[in-house]
Amino acid sequence: MQIKISVIIPCYNSEKFITKTLQSVLSQTIYPDEIILIDDGSTDNTAKIIESIIIKHNHKTELSLIKSKQHGPGYARNIGIKNAKYEWIAFLDSDDYWEKNKIEIIYKYIKQNKNINFLCHNEYMLTLNGVKKVSNYSKFYKKDTSLFNQIYYKNYFSTSAVVCKRKLLLDNNLFNINLMSAQDYELWIRMSDKINLFFIPEVLGNYIERKGNITSGNLYNRMINEILIANMYKQKAGLKLFLLRLARIFSLYVYYYLRRLIS
């Protein structure tokens, strides 16, 4: 079975991170078949840095940069998906990075599980205070319980840890660009009934927590969008699960807000 993977990396003012992120893909034990970077209207040197890396490394795999006006990461990912050539899509945010054997491990599990269309692996999280811990996304997942119910209540997927079939994304109308944030979470919910899931037990990526992600403005916007998403699927979830979801949203954002005050 021939497996081909396109890597989608949206970028916005990522000059401080993009070299490390991209090098983590170019240093894989097995290269992906193409890497598409979408510059979402950066005002710094992100595009120039990417262009210089493309010149040096384009012989390793297909590397391309698409420039766009600023519309947000969901819009940028949609551009990448539409332009991708291959069956599988691997997402990577421009400030995260992968372990060097990620693509090799992905290939292995796709070959072993021919019916799957969506994979997610565990990640290291580097917190603001420098603590490195493992985020085990599959820890609470139950195979015999509705995936919709589970991820409606709690998001089990980190975007940079997701690899899925391009057709699955296209058939479900890609990311909702009308949401200001949590576009990835809403897409996972929307696709949940069509997802044939496989959780990879290995830790294959690194998520870096940054101060800009927990500012009061960002937290408020994320909270409002998660409430909107909860309401979008309220009828399918039922009143009890809807109320449980709201309670979880509020408790999480109180926790994040207190962390912001402490830090």
Determine the mean pLDDT. Answer: 93
User: What proportion of the residues is helical, as a percent range?
Assistant: 40-55%
Structural class: alpha/beta
Q: Strand content of the residues, in percent?
A: 15-25%
Question: Which runs of at least 5 residues are low in confidence (pLDDT < 50)?
Answer: none
Main β-sheet, in a few words?
Answer: 9 strands, mixed
Describe the structure.
- This protein is α/β, with parallel strands linked by helices.
- Helix content is 42%, strand content 21%.
- Strands 1, 2, 3, 4, 5, 6, 7, 8 and 9 form a 9-stranded mixed β-sheet that branches.
- Strand 2, helix 2 (46-57) and strand 3 (62-68) form a beta-alpha-beta unit.
- Helix 1 (18-26) runs parallel beside helix 2, helix 5 (147-153) runs antiparallel to helix 7 and helix 8 packs antiparallel against helix 10.
- The chain starts with a strand and ends with a helix.
- The mean pLDDT is 93.
Summarize the structure in short.
The protein is 42% helix and 21% strand. It has 263 residues and is of the alpha/beta class.
List the topology elements.
Layout: E1 5-11, H1 18-26, E2 34-40, H2 46-57, E3 62-68, H3 73-83, E4 88-91, E5 97-98, H4 102-112, E6 118-126, E7 132-135, H5 147-153, E8 162-165, H6 166-171, H7 183-191, E9 197-208, H8 216-232, H9 234-237, H10 239-262
Parallel strand pairs: 1-2, 1-4, 2-3, 6-9
Antiparallel strand pairs: 4-8, 5-9, 6-7, 6-8
Helix pairs in contact: 1-2, 5-7, 8-10
